[in-house]
Amino acid sequence: MPNIKFNYLYRDSGNYKKFISVIFSNPDDVELSVFEGLIKAKLIDERWFYAERWNLPEIFTDIIDFGVDPTWHEFESIEYTDEPADDSFSLACFMKLTGTSNR
After folding, report:
1. Are 12 and 69 in contact (CB under 8 A)?
2. Residue 2 has pLDDT above 60, yes or no
3. Overall pTM > 0.90
4. What is the DSSP string of 22-79?
5. In DSSP terms, which residues pair with 24 in a beta bridge?
6. How far apart are CA 82 and CA 103, in angstroms?
7. Mean pLDDT score of the chain, rounded to an integer?
8. CB 73, CB 51: distance < 8 Å
9. Residues 55, 61, 67, 70, CA torsion sign
10. Is the alpha carbon torsion for 32, 33, 39, 40 positive or negative?
């Protein structure tokens, strides 16, 4: 099965956005629909998460004021991809870290 691309963004209080993707290897052939359901169950209001807590890169806009701008990131989507996986860790490791494993 192909790798899985996890797409997310940072949106500041002025609605300026910055996008990023992380690509996980998927040697256990996790189905996209299953993974998406597990992820959404762990999100804040099915949308937000703290990238640092999930060991994902934090991205912020160029000018940020933590007094008014949020520190969470916004889940956008996941998709299959043939792009090479990032070296950080596998999908199984990510699922274990975030508590999204269904095992």
Report:
1. yes
2. yes
3. no
4. EEE--TT---HHHHHHHHHHHSBTTTEE-GGGGT------SS--TTTS---EEEEEEE
5. 4
6. 26
7. 89
8. yes
9. negative
10. positive
